[in-house]
Design a protein that fits this description.
This protein is mostly beta strands. It contains no helices and ten strands. It is elongated, with a radius of gyration of 19 Å. The relative contact order is 0.31.
Length: about 100
Amino acid sequence: MYALVEYKGKQYKAEKGALIQVDKIDAEQGQTIDIDTVVLLSDGDKVSVGTPYVEGAVVKAVVEDTFKDKKIIVYKYKSKKDYHRTIGHRQQYTNIRISDIVGA
């Protein structure tokens, strides 16, 4: 059984026991979250497609940890103008583990 969920503006494939990396969530480690924006739900032979979401379907997940990704260097440069600027960015992510998928 798997589900396609929309979370924080992005879509993820959720299977029981899967570890998903999402944008940072302000939640404590070990806290349970419910995601009710299920776009598609499949249990092997039956597929339910939502309009826009499947009613009654919920994906339960547990927050594992929050971390920063590797640094990305952004370099801006304009030729013949003596302009150059270097900045860096580290995106923050949260790992969540899918504990259960409840279908409608």
